[in-house]
Structure prediction request, 515 residues.
Amino acid sequence: MFDDFFIRALVAGIGIAFVAGPLGCFVVWRRLSYFGDTLAHSALLGVTIAYSLEFNIAVSIFLISSAIALILIQLQKKTNLPSDALLGLLAHSSLAVGLVVIGFLTFIRFDIMGLLFGDILAVNKKDLVTIWVGGALILLVLRLIWKPLFASTVNYELAQAEGLNPDRAKAIFTILLAAIIAISIKLVGVLLITGMLIIPTAMARNLSDNPQKMVIFAIIGGLLSVFIGLFSSLEFNTPSGPSIIAAALVLFIFSLLKVKQTIQLKN
Amino acid sequence: MSIENNILVKLNNVGFQQNQKWLVKGVSLQVEKGKIVTLIGPNGSGKSTTAKIALGLFKNIEGQVEKFTNNIGYVPQKISIDWTLPLRVRDFMLLTDNLTEDVIDEALSLTGVINLKDKSLGNLSGGEFQRVLLARAISKKPELLVLDEPVQGVDFTGEIALYELIKEISEKLNCGILLISHDLHTVMSATDHVVCLNGHVCCSGSPKEVAKNSEYKALFGEQAAQTLSIYEHKHDHIHTNDGDIKKN
Prediction:
């Protein structure tokens, strides 16, 4: 059954949507979308290192993204630059270094478009295992840190005062972000992974009045985006990443209708 | 838990500085089981900072904090809920602890906001929100409650009722309460021990003693003290801008 490339892409997309929903909610709640972008951009460097050292791609991306996250935390402590400037600095320099390294690796043929925007043909059986096992692990860890992470998202001091450990939860969450980027890069691509995290979540916000509902709607939105996106990618021969994200955008636009209704009801 | 003397938290000569300025310095106090300690003082006198030191929210403090409980309920002075996070009152009640519906209902009923249980937190008025904050803090039946201006924005009759409730809670749960208020009048009847802060401990004692104290009057004006006291003394020191204290 997994011999068909389209089925493989679909199964991969479903796995990613289940993980992206809950993680995406925290990215939006904690205002981390630029942070997600920075980690994703650094993933390209991870890919090139994996190729040149003949190393596992997902593991390499995961390590590089985690390292970039650590560097960011250090820079935030040691410089007076604002966070958005530091994020931009790290995002673009790691993307640039990644592309420069690709330029040097002339002996390997790179599908740059595939790396940046995802490739429906690129997902193999091994990737499916990585996505589903990795995804299950990510969700399990997120479940374990949910309470302190959520409480500190609402109010950091309150969470700390009442005995939860917000700093540890935050550090673990950063690692989870690096991990989802590592497992979803082949299908969605470096430039659009953050879109997969935040656009279904933004749609879900318009439809929910409580956090659990928002997580569930974000997963449903992600699943629908994957289905619509991959089928149109097959139909119109478009890259998979942009097709999925465009589908998510359409869903988001529909969700705005609901917001308009609630606002009218309030008046 | 330090059983012999019922102490829940003890601050020993603590201080905290930020950007080379002391926010508070040389504060010692302790909160015991079943007792209410009230911190009063003008704006910027370090009341919230002292409470946060007691809660262990700052690293790099001077002095020692000894905590004998981890079951703490906290009502922060300021809390803003981001609109990107949809949160109902019932979700907020479960923030740091897993409570049953009955426990949530009981706490919300005590503070008079059970009708708001399914409302979105963003749609509450200031006073309603304070009542929800208080309900959340007491719902987990804490051993130590830290309440930073818990009745701000609550109407006058509600304010008195809530202070009575706080007193009731301290008796019922036998928990210690560290209460921050800017108004000694309204907390008078509810408090056992008052600490008057202005960057350091200006004076402390029972509410009556503090009201009579010259430093209290110097801080809050004759008017504030008059209804409580007829005695007069001289303020024996002045506060400079960098937080130092000069004797006259």
In short: Chain A has a mean pLDDT of 90. The radius of gyration of chain A is 19 Å.
